[in-house]
Amino acid sequence: MSCIHVIMNLNLTPFQEPRGVMRVLQLIFAICAFTTTANFSVDYQTDCSDLPKPTTWNIDYPFKFYENVCQRASNNESLAITADVSTDAQFFVATGVLAMLYGGFIIFVYAFLDELYKSKNEIPLADFMLTTIFAVLWLSSSAAWANSTSALKNVLDPQYAIEMCKHCRASNSGFNGLHSSLLLGFLNFFLWASDLWFVYKETYWFQTRQGPSQTPIS
């Protein structure tokens, strides 16, 4: 009976308002952001004249690696690629996962507990504060991840291999997935920051500033 009671309380009215629509978009794009990053990998291939055939390394999340990709015994030339951007990558993914969890939770509240949401001043206020925190998290994690992405691309740049080892040739499979994750990160920041106004309108701060409605003097 409790499940039936919960279903009977389903209220889709908040999702006809901007605050509800924004929550659905936030949930979708948070999932897209962290899955794009966590599932991204790049193949780095080197062709060294001392080796019988090209060798390929797979670089994937969390992007912490050290690979000795070429070693020429004839003249002691070597080429190693190394990077550790795992902290920023994990920060970005963690932000996405937490945003997904909160987005799913607040969608449930809007859908089934909207009367309670509006009757308790503390709930909209907490929602506003958490929305602010997530907006800051998306901005900071996206900026950090953008910097780490640039560093990762520099290390895996084929031109870097040529400069470090004249007898080596290198190539990579591209970074389209990382570019997508960055765009999704800043899009998430925009969505959460834009939602602040709509959530703020539900708080008693906004409602008390509106003041009591005045009846016209006859």
From TrEMBL:
One Pfam family name is MARVEL
InterPro entries reported for this sequence: Marvel, Synaptophysin/porin
What does the record list as coiled-coil region(s)?
none
Report whether S-adenosyl-L-methionine shows up as a keyword of the record. Answer: no
Q: Which residues form the MARVEL domain?
A: 14-204
Q: Name one GO cellular component term.
A: synaptic vesicle membrane
Q: Which UniProt keywords apply?
A: Glycoprotein, Membrane, Transmembrane, Transmembrane helix
Identify its membrane topology class: Multi-pass membrane protein
Q: Which residues cross the membrane?
A: 21-42, 91-113, 125-146, 182-200
Q: Give the family per the record.
A: Belongs to the synaptophysin/synaptobrevin family.
* Protein name as catalogued: CSON002580 protein
Organism field? Culicoides sonorensis
* Lineage of origin: Eukaryota, Metazoa, Ecdysozoa, Arthropoda, Hexapoda
Q: Which gene encodes it?
A: CSON002580
